[in-house]
Amino acid sequence: MGNENHDFLPEMSGQDGPQPGPSWDNPRWRQESSGAGDDWTQGLDPTQMRLAVAQAAKQAGKPADPKAIERAADDSIRAMLLIRLYRVRGHLAADLDPLGLSHREEPEDLSLEWHEFAGQEDREVYVGGVFGFEWVTVGKLYDTLRATYCGKVGLEYMHISDTEERRFLQDHFETPEETIQFTEEGKRAILAAVIRGEQYEQFLGKKYVGTKRFGLDGGESMIPALEAVIKYGGQLGVREIIYGMAHRGRLNVLANVMAKPYKVIFHEFQGGSSNPDDVGGSGDVKYHLGTSTDREFDGITVHMSLVPNPSHLEAVNPVVLGKARAQQANRDDLTKHEQVLPVLIHGDAAFAGQGIVWECFGLSGIRGYDTGGCIHFVINNQIGFTTSPKFARSSPYPSDVAKGVQAPILHVNGDDPEAVTFACKLAVEYRHTFGRDIVIDMWCYRRFGHNEGDEPSFTQPLMYDSIRAHPKVSVIYGDRLEREGVIAAGDRDGLCDEFNDRLEAEFAAAKDYTPDEADWFGGRWAGLNKPADPETARRNVETAVSDKLFASLGRTLTTVPEDVTIHKTLGRVLKAKRDMFDKGEGFDWATAEALAFGSLVTEGFGVRLSGQDSGRGTFSQRHAIWVDQNDESKYIPLSTLPHGKFEVYDSILSEYGVLGFEYGFALADPKTLVMWEAQFGDFANGAQIIIDQFIASGEAKWLRANGLVMLLPHGYEGQGPEHSSARLERFLQLCANDNIQVCNITSPANYFHVLRRQMLRSFRKPLVIMTPKSLLRHPMAKSAMGDFTGKSHFRRILSDPLEIADDKVRRVVLCSGKVAYDLIEKRDEEGLDDVSIIRIEQIYPFPGDPLAARLSRMSNLESVVWCQEEPQNNGSWFFVQNRIEDALTQAGHEGMRPSYAGREVAASPATGYARRHEEQQRALVSMALGLNDGGAALRQSNSQSGANSQSDTNSKTNKG
């Protein structure tokens, strides 16, 4: 029986709606068969060609004898092959390099000789309507092909399998009225934009000699081209453009495309802040900053934002895509993708060299991540810092990676601003029509070095000899417009002088400029703020839910629709859940999580969870998606709830790209709980750039708050080095100035409350949670109904479940995570009634005050121990030891210092041997509890680990 009533995401259709058929089938992958008239096969069947030629000859009054028809058919087949080869390979002969240094041998099969037409330029051949010709001379056809495919724009598109996409590009390239044509007014506007780009760079170079600006010098044609994206995009329904780009040309784009006031940029060059002094934050260098603005073309206003980014090339790409996806959701534009357009501006070396580029292409057509196509603009300097292209990539073009998703590529000569502008116009139309990525590869040059203080002639002397002698873009284009009669002699100089006068006025105004407000809590962020109270004094918000909502969510989570056939094991899981709700106790981690999600959705928030196996859960614990066992249709219980929206996606096998995407989504939508889940916690290190440069420091650098949640499975269960540690120590090392929150939670109810707290607070901070593995089903890791309702709330520290009188406590063991239950079990087994085990559930911001209050009541306290499973150089120890000592002092135990119980220092996060793991675990628990055998056993195990590792290596070598 079908399951059409249970869509994956009921609100959406297209790529985000139900996809019929089994899970391995994707309609986007299907390649159409080549039918009649297809551009790959048109006219190449000899029999069909003879018939077509005979009919055409008859209509044209040409000789119709069999030999003439046979010869004409043969000519026609060769002519059509010539046309096809120009469509496929014409870009290889295009005039792309402004410097003329790229010496590429023209393919032999683009010559008339190869097609046996040499010396026969006057012969008429039948081409059946190509370029508007029925019959055309060989010479005329050849000239047309050269002008079309080998001019200032080279088109790569025949790798695309979809016939309609190829025809669209072909028509826009081969139809005269669709090609590069601009009115005189349009040409003057293009020239003015180029001049603004050039003069701006010259002005900065003159006023701030030797200061790095990563200028656009040599690539100024990008300025009118990006304005064309705004103009033509607006005409097609675009109302918001989200840009991402690296350093080169960024200040120029900020000023001349994003309309950031020149005086503000000059103020920053003079050392001034981009935000008011009372806002705080570290700030960032000016060529990392972003901005947002509105621009109007032809009466249509388009909102634009340039996302701030670090020096890590291409790292901003997934952030832009995630932000675009969120804005499309906010605008109810996830089906048509018409209103929000992502534009990424790349350097050639980075586009070819950075793997994140491919990760983003991989996201481009995936449900939950599709943005309806992104326009990629490559500033092809033909050099990467000091590395020439032949040493920087293994393929002819930096854009070749885009062929992996069958994106069309427009190679264009940067000395022809009309051609570059045309390429952007075509890109906007293609993206609007097909909702797919497209690449513009603008060949240009870098007039100065990697930055203005660099000397490029050290490594590329010949290139820079040519650059120094090469005229500027405005000179080349201005001379051309003079020849065409579009402008008069001297007009170009007049435009330069006029713009320079404007810059001088802005320069003078910069001296008195002071920023009056920061822009980080406007729009969808209205009502949120920076926390007013210190991180250590912050109080919890009310996160409990009513009994009625709790029961209602229980029914949603355990009711199977009649037309859904679930897996028999899932049936047992759901029966166990029903028992939890019937008894009001025994709630496990996954159920607590689902209750948090469902309650937030019911209250009007969005919930978005993504990761490599998030639907089912890596450990078969979540089951947010129920897959019908008969037809693989999907039912998501939480998506049936009213008010908000619940989304869960199994992502591509990527950490870097997907985490960046989710960070970008959370950047744009503070009203959605956005979560990224690592398959195993240590896999997060594959996304370390996003963690370091965006999540931990983005608010301080760029005043951009973010509420992203990272769920990182963590815990030592003997699964080896790669599946034990989420590298908790690395996150703690990043903690400062109230930037992020780091938790290692042991209670399902506490997990429920921390997720709800994340959305119910009046501010947003990234939240890193060390989620468990064994605790997902641990008999002690359970919560009762009362822990979710009434006056319950998130607890930063959890007291010992064994009630010990405060004055009886001699030893306190502090810990976080799974080891707490090992400690409790061993303590109870040994009958130690004077040892209290306290769990630190939130490690940062560290709960110093409540811990001090708890310790102050222990009047006979003799020792405090910090116990962790991680090696001493990992985990929390080095972060918490001074904070625990401060809490002891505050509690009146001055002079008492915490001691350490755990594994000794180690290069690897964990042993790979089950027996050794068990020995170490028993030993560290005993050591923490003060049992005599603990410390010695742990040291012996660690010593054996080093010796055995060498022995194991030698053994393997001998066997080998």
Automatic annotation (TrEMBL):
Cofactor(s) required for function per UniProt: thiamine diphosphate
Assembly with partners or alone: Homodimer. Part of the 2-oxoglutarate dehydrogenase (OGDH) complex composed of E1 (2-oxoglutarate dehydrogenase), E2 (dihydrolipoamide succinyltransferase) and E3 (dihydrolipoamide dehydrogenase); the complex contains multiple copies of the three enzymatic components (E1, E2 and E3).
Protein name as it appears in the record: 2-oxoglutarate dehydrogenase E1 component
Its job: E1 component of the 2-oxoglutarate dehydrogenase (OGDH) complex which catalyzes the decarboxylation of 2-oxoglutarate, the first step in the conversion of 2-oxoglutarate to succinyl-CoA and CO(2).
Domain of life per record: Bacteria
Enzyme class name: oxidoreductase
UniProt xrefs under CDD domains: TPP_E1_OGDC_like
A Pfam family: Transket_pyr
InterPro entries registered for this protein in UniProt: 2oxoglutarate_DH_E1, DH_E1, KGD_C_sf, ODO-1/KGD_C, THDP-binding, Transketolase-like_Pyr-bd
Domain Transketolase-like pyrimidine-binding: 587-778
A GO term, aspect molecular function: oxoglutarate dehydrogenase (succinyl-transferring) activity
Feature: compositional bias, Low complexity: 940-951
